[in-house]
Amino acid sequence: MIDGNQVVEVVRALGFTHVLWIPDSELGKWNDALSVAGTPRLIRPCREGEATAIAGGLCLGGARPLTILQCTGFFEAGDSFRNFVHDMKLPLIFLIGIRSYRAHQEGRSADTCPVFTEPIIKAWDLPYALLPGDFNATDLEQALKRFVKGRRAGAVLLGE
């Protein structure tokens, strides 16, 4: 998985103004770089539903937020997501870590997060790209760019 400095470079290159993030699992390794980046501005909400609501408000105000969370947090944020993306038609973009994805693929985990993440994303009718296992900065940038250029909501799922 890419390091935090590379994530900051990709997020800056795509014009994201804010990152809403509750550090967790593998994505937590990006903490130091995101904390000192300055741009994009890091916002640390208390819950994932709150992160989605803040991202919605920022988007309404003309900002381009990126919400980074783990799949279980996306499950928790469902109602906020539904309201901002489907009712208000805001182009919110999410970077979602799928906890235990690689271990599950190898039969080494009974964690159900990898089982339910894609079906839930599909049920919420959210376009997505999946980056399983190792990926580089170019892979991440291309996956995010699809939603940024299309000015539409979407998610990049990261297999942790």
CATH topology annotation: Rossmann fold
Q: Report the strand count.
A: 6
- SSE series: HEHEHEHHEHHEHE
Helix and strand composition category: alpha/beta
State the distance separating the first and last CA atoms: 8 Å
* CATH architectural label: 3-Layer(aba) Sandwich
Tell me, briefly, the overall form.
globular
Q: Into which percentage range does the β-strand content fall?
A: 15-25%
Please summarize the sheet with the most strands: 6 strands, parallel
Looking at this structure, what is the CATH superfamily? Thiamin diphosphate (ThDP)-binding fold, Pyr/PP domains
Helix fraction by DSSP (H/I, runs of at least 4): 40-55%
Please tally the helical runs, counting DSSP H or I stretches of 4 or more residues: 8
- What is the CATH level 1 assignment? Alpha Beta
Describe this structure in words.
With 160 residues, the chain is an alpha/beta fold. The protein has one domain (4-159): Rossmann fold, CATH 3.40.50. The chain is 47% helix and 18% strand. The protein has helices spanning 4-13, 31-36, 48-60, 71-76, 78-87, 101-105, 113-123, 137-150, and strands at 18-21, 41-43, 65-70, 93-98, 128-131, 154-159. The protein has a six-stranded parallel beta sheet with strand order 2-1-3-4-6-5, with helices on both faces. 39% of the residues are buried. The model has no long low-confidence stretch (mean pLDDT 93).
